[in-house]
Amino acid sequence: MARLDHKNTGRRPAQSPGWTAHAVLTTAVVLATSAFAADALDPNALKRLVHQDCGSCHGLSLKGGLGPDLRSETLEHYDPDVLTGVILDGIPDTAMPPWRPLISEEEAEWIARYLLEQEAQ
Predict the structure, then answer these.
(1) pLDDT of 90-102, one tens digit each?
(2) So what's the pLDDT on residue 102?
(3) DSSP string of 42-74?
(4) What's the confidence (pLDDT) of residue 118?
(5) 56-86 burial, b for 16+ CB within 10 Å, e for fewer?
(6) CA distance 49 to 47
(7) Cα(24)–Cα(41) distance, integer angstroms
(8) Which of 46, 51, 90, 111 shows a CA-CA span of 20 to 30 A to 118?
(9) CA angle 106, 107, 109 (to 5 degrees)
């Protein structure tokens, strides 16, 4: 008896019901994170990230809210490497989440420098 498979019949093998949902979710995650994974950093996109995403906890003007004040005059005693680590890994047992799954180390370094160098607001 001849074996039937997609090579002989021209039909694709059956896929599991969750395959399509998994493919769509994977595509959405790749698209969402690829905006920040470009070869060149996009300062405007990163500024929006800081003021919108970080601002949702730290206040839209970064003067503090649920999270502390992020203006340069309050952060000036921090080393950029320390801030980069906090951005990437969060602070355990606090509301500060790790951003490592969403942004690159280079982007976190840019954000740390931006927070330290921004003009007083």
Answers:
(1) 999 999 999 999 9
(2) 96
(3) -HHHHHHIIIIIIHHHH-TTSS-SSSPP-SHHH
(4) 86
(5) eebbeebeeeebebbbbeebeeeebeebbbb
(6) 5
(7) 27
(8) 90
(9) 65
Residues in Cβ contact with 28 at an 8 Å cutoff, skipping those fewer than 6 apart: none
How many Å apart are CA 112 and CA 75, to the nearest integer?
10
Taking the C-alpha atoms of residue 106 and residue 28, their distance in angstroms, rounded to an integer, is 22
Q: What is the pLDDT of residues 30-52, one digit of tens each?
A: 445 544 454 689 999 999 999 99
Indicate the residue type of 83: L
Task: Give this prediction's pTM.
Answer: 0.66
- Distance, in Å, from the CA atom of 83 to the CA atom of 3, rounded to the nearest integer, reads 61
Strand ranges in 1-121 using DSSP code E only, listed in sequence order: none
φ, ψ at 84 (rounded to 5°):
-60, -45
> Taking 90 as the threshold, does the pLDDT of residue 20 lie above it?
no
